[in-house]
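Re: your question about Luciferase-like monooxygenase

S., sorry for the slow reply, the queue was backed up all week. Below is exactly what I fed in.
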Amino acid sequence: MAGITYSVLDLATVVAGKTPEDTFRHSLELAQYAEELGYKRYWLAEHHNMISVASSATSVLIGYIAGGTKTIRVGSGGIMLPNHSPLVIAEQFGTLASLYPGRIDLGLGRAPGTDQVTAMAIRGSRFNAAHDFPEDVEQLKTYFSDDNASSQVRAIPGEGLDIPIWILGSSTDSARLAAEKGLPYAFASHFAPAQFLTAINIYRQNFKPSATLQKPYVISCVNVVAADTDAEANRLVTSLLQFFMGVVTGRRRLLQPPVDSMDDIWNAQEAEAVGQMLGCSFIGSPETIREDLQSFMEQTKVDELMVTSHIYDHQARLHSYEIFADVIKKVSVPVLN
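Result:
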């Protein structure tokens, strides 16, 4: 039996009545508290043209969080690599790893992190760059390697630095790529749970050991809304439900305050669509969370849980992470052979 590594995914969510400036200050406070509570990583995700998500300049935010903490690993969950040239990302993360040695992670995704119109504005003539994702990952690894020292194009800083690369995904395609390259794999089960079990099975069954990783390593990102009582958690989670409803309908808003009932906010079809996104979510009191987590871990045997919490009130959000950190120490699972 083994304990479970636990981490944070922060979407830098802007709540109604607040600004991105408030969001960044709260993110740093959460990262500092997470460090105290034993969370291993604090990752930020690249998104664009979303009113409620302020993490578009992901590398800048990673530097801000790393500069305000001491031991927690800070990274991307993820950088959407087709939006950038591999050289620029190598330089940015080489700079971060030089400023904060041994603390920077580089998670990579292939989606644009936005709508198609905005993706065109970002990528321009490279609009179909997602097709080059496997080659771009390999190019990035080359820029980080000592072997690139004789190349005409070098990443300075970046070359020769130990910067762990992770493959992120929400489908089986990413699982196959991570397995083929022998890289750790983080699945976006917090919003795309449907293919989660299939994807991690494909990854584990096809994994090829590499110089950086000898056996499969899986992170599952999950939604957590924990409170002292089930009733309070079920009220707090209505902010997340409204957030997901905006994703489903395309009518995005700043993160809304919780409500006593969703009945007057959504219709049956919207409720069903949101429900399908909640398959890897843990909502409730400490005891409820513990029971649900134990079952989840016995079924999936993932190596690490990464928690994201769309909670309107900052203090309630901090308390949710505190509850989770306490509860997860009471959950254990058999280790995969």
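The longest strand covers residues 218-226. The mean pLDDT is 94.

Happy to talk it through on Thursday.
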